[in-house]
Amino acid sequence: MKQIRLKRSTRTPRVVFGHPWVFSGEIETPPRVPAGEAVELLDARGHSLGSGIWNPASQIVWRKFSSEKRAWGEDFLAEALAKAVAKRAPAPASRRLVWSEADALPGLVVDRFEDALVVQTLTAGADKMLPFIAAWLDENLSPSEIIFRNDAPSRRFEGLELSVSFHENKPHVPRRFDIEGVRYFLDLAGGQKTGFYLDQREQHMNAAKFSRGKSVLDACCNQGGFSFQCARAGAAQTLGIDVSAPAIEACRRNAAENGFRNCAFETANLFDWFGENRERRFDLIVLDPPPFARTKDALAGALRGYKELNLRALKMLNPGGVLATYSCSQRVGTEKFIDVLSSAAHDARRRVTLLEITGQPEDHPALLNFPESRYLKGLILRAD
């Protein structure tokens, strides 16, 4: 196995403390190794830091998968896949089975929707081993179908093309799936990410516990998960807002399919909607916008956006109302998010109590030494 060595530096690289990434500027002369092969990482003194996937086409040239000297091959992959699946058993019908570095499988994502699997390979190493990965999943999990959603834009950073394909060329037919007691009509080959935001399914139910007999605003509702769980919990009325007309149409269809008569949906830009509906009031407001800070340069603007949305939501809450607010922006940490909400509460002149701080579900584990894996955070607040 080829080796790479960290440069001598006055600042100790994060990888020495357990972070799984090494950037191109942190190593000495790179080896002549094809993308997707395993290389051993040495610190500046020559001590081994483990094995990782090499890709000279990416800014992240090395991604750790083992603390030992291991080949990136079928033996390791079979062990890691079995371990990832086993630690999530027994599992609900729809949940994440494999999540990238958190399962020592950099760039591999596997989501299960009842008897269907959706697979993403986001690194050259995972992409190279996709035939074996598919065969292992087929043999050990016996899915009815496997959809390869390799259309994520991040693949371009690894020098990979974008595509959607199917195991054994069996195309996916959109159909209904059960997720936490709600039936959704999903297109797993064309929906966002892997077809559904499974990382929020627990929060759909968590927020719903505040909704019985209440009026609910589900802002940035996407596929309606918060609205539907609130409807199941006995909300008096829910209103979902999203800028995507197809998403709203899907919500309306799924509401009818589930018999939810207390759910309404509107297509609108949320900032505009808040401005046009200042006089409306709700008992529970859910804010679950898409990531605002995709790059470091976008962070300041993202914080302003989060503050403005939450400020408007706090002004729209009835006394004693609850705000369930979330951020999936990796660059916005929990403390920063709390600071934003504190500032919004001050400007709204509301006395706000922090009820809960929420994070990712167990099937989306976050590594302690890998802040990038801790992307999802939420606050449950009560405004007097």
Automatic annotation (TrEMBL):
Its main location: cytoplasm. Residues 212-329 form the Methyltransferase domain. It is found in: Cytoplasm. One of its GO terms (biological process) is methylation. Pfam families: Methyltransf_31 (PF13847), PUA_3 (PF17785). Keywords: Cytoplasm, Methyltransferase, S-adenosyl-L-methionine, Transferase. InterPro entries: Methyltranfer_dom (IPR025714), PUA-like_sf (IPR015947), PUA_sf (IPR036974), RlmI-like_PUA (IPR041532), SAM-dependent_MTases_sf (IPR029063). Residues 11-66 form the RlmI-like PUA domain. GO terms for molecular function: methyltransferase activity; RNA binding. Belongs to the methyltransferase superfamily. RlmI family. PANTHER family: RIBOSOMAL RNA LARGE SUBUNIT METHYLTRANSFERASE, S-ADENOSYLMETHIONINE-DEPENDENT METHYLTRANSFERASE DOMAIN-CONTAINING PROTEIN. This is Class I SAM-dependent rRNA methyltransferase. It comes from Candidatus Spyradosoma merdigallinarum. The lineage of its organism: Bacteria, Pseudomonadati, Verrucomicrobiota, Opitutia, Opitutia incertae sedis.
